[in-house]
Amino acid sequence: RDERNQSIIVSGESGAGKTVSAKYAMRYFATVSGSASEANVEEKVLASNPIMESIGNAKTTRNDNSSRFGKYIEIGFDKRYRIIGANMRTYLLEKSRVVFQAEEERNYHIFYQLCASAALPELKTLRLGNANYFHYTKQGGSPVIDGVDDAKEMVNTRQACTLLGISDSYQMAIFRILAGILHLGNVEFASRDSDSCTIPPKHEPLTIFCDLMGVEYEEMAHWLCHRKLATTTETYIKPISKLHAVNARDALAKHIYANLFNWIVDHVNKALHATVKQHSFIGVLDIYGFETFEINSFEQFCINYANEKLQQQFNMHVFKLEQEEYMKEQIPWTLIDFYDNQPCINLIEAKMGILDLLDEECKMPKGSDDTWAQKLYNTHLNKCALFEKPRLSNKAFIIKHFADKVEYQCEGFLEKNKDTVYEEQIKVLKSSKFKLLPELFQDEEKVLSPTSATPSGRVPLSRTAVKPAKARPGQASKEHKKTVGHQFRNSLHLLMETLNATTPHYVRCIKPNDFKFPFTFDEKRAVQQLRACGVLETIRISAAGFPSRWTYQEFFSRYRVLMKQRDVLSDRKQTCKNVLEKLILDKDKYQFGKTKIFFRAGQVAYLEKIRADKLRAACIRIQKTIRGWLMRKKYVRMRKAAITIQRYVRGYQARCYAKFLRRTRAAITIQKFQRMYVVRKRYQCMRAATIALQALLRGYMARNKYQMV
């Protein structure tokens, strides 16, 4: 109605129900809008859910189907508000889950779906087995989710892939790569000494990995245990220790999975791409919820940073901008205090903030998690009230987030922020004889040049949450050298710009308990969440404030139907005042600002009801008149038709009657002459007989008389 793009921001803690709420919203749009073509775009939009859940969701201690990435889906509509396409942006996939899961957690669902379907004839070449056989799927010790059939979910995933145009051959190629990752996780290293290691000859997991990936065994075995160092004058090959080899193996597995994830997202976007011009869109944001575990690392830091930004956007929209507008419009108002999380965001992203110090440490030749932790303590400890140091640790820090305090372990922050992998391993994979694998790495051509190697001999290959514009020659390397934290910060800024350019609607998901129990409600836990996300202050400002507002021209255009001609003045403001005083008797229910009219909750709905009733009455009158005219026209047409039919029927009946009369008269005439003929003939016979008798009698009498004489 207002010709504005909309956004639905679904937020809440991990396991509160954000993903399901987002799916319900998308299902609603797909159901009520319909498709603008015969391509069933709305079905494809819904089909993207099972695919993205299988490759991006996993079981955690807080949620059996936790989204381990963020996504913002723009559903495009044409001018008739029918779905014409969609586009998905993804944010920070949790790659570390591919190689490590905490106790009672699982890897991504797709791995367990593959293992559960290993007996299928088409998947036997992948040489899979039980999930407990693979290092990458057994670490959590919980390979099964209660009430979930992974084999059945695999069928749903494959059906969704088919609906989105991913052919059977590409599906099998995806499964080959995923199976290869599982076998890669089982590759073991034997130490030669403290600085070198080796892989046993004809090592079965590596043999299967190389067969599935279509690469040479010797090359891959060599580069898993060695790295190339380039100097200004020469290049030489250096063996690496067992620990570094295991880390390099895990980095390669994470990198393959991340690139495959991006490839699938791109393919889904191509399938959902609108073929006609988009008129408007509704965006649905389903992003990871606030998290705190026993051990919190870089992923939880980024996830909670994203939630801080979303909470700030909520505060800006609901509190700051709301109250500032009351002041600007000179509406009588008492300011309501609310928790402003801008200091926490400054601590994370401002100059010399946590992310800045992390990026700076990543550039240092001998940078480490420990030195970075010391820089954090020196910069922020006792200077920022939201930053604390744990009593018993020099390798961790605490941030007071809007939802809760979280202690982060510094170990692994630098490595995850760099997100690097050995370039020689990538080159081996790019030489694969299978089509899909080189496709995953084709965007890294320029990054893998010898001149782009970092001092560590590794190449940063961070994924980009939002695709950048095409770079000019020489820019690709610079783009890839951006750290994960830097890219994530940029992608969040772009997301905030998109959300601020639309009309936001908020869905707050409240988690009833922390134990995943059904029908169990923890009142204290629920109130804590309501306080943390500002819902209680929102209720206060909604009760005391004016949530609805119209400019005078908008109000006049919308409610002109409620005005009589004599009420319309040249001064729009005075016209609106006169009309409102008649329609809403309680003057506390609205306020007149300098450029807008402000309404308390429920008043616009009341005006809409009056307007709807007026339009309904007008519609009934129009319908009555139109229906009367139509019925009169129908009656005249039917009367004319009836008269015509009557005329023809009566003419036919008259002709039939005349014919009957003529036939009757003819019959009487025939009867008359027939009867006359019969009677005359009888008469003539009787006369002749009588005359004959008379002649005989008279002759007899005459003879007798003669004889007597």
UniProtKB/TrEMBL annotation:
Keyword Metal-binding among record annotations: no
Binding site for ATP: G12, E13, S14, G15, A16, G17, K18, T19
Domain Myosin motor: 1-612
Residue span of region Actin-binding: 492-514
GO biological process, one term: actin filament organization
A GO molecular function held by the record: ATP binding
Gene3D superfamilies, per database record: 1.10.10.820, 1.20.5.190, 1.20.58.530, 3.30.70.1590, Kinesin motor domain (3.40.850.10), Myosin VI head, motor domain, U50 subdomain (1.20.120.720)
Gene Ontology cellular component terms for the protein in this record: cytoplasm; membrane; myosin complex
Annotated spans, Disordered: 448-483
Protein name in UniProt: Unconventional myosin-Va
Phylogenetic placement of the source organism: Eukaryota, Metazoa, Chordata, Craniata, Vertebrata
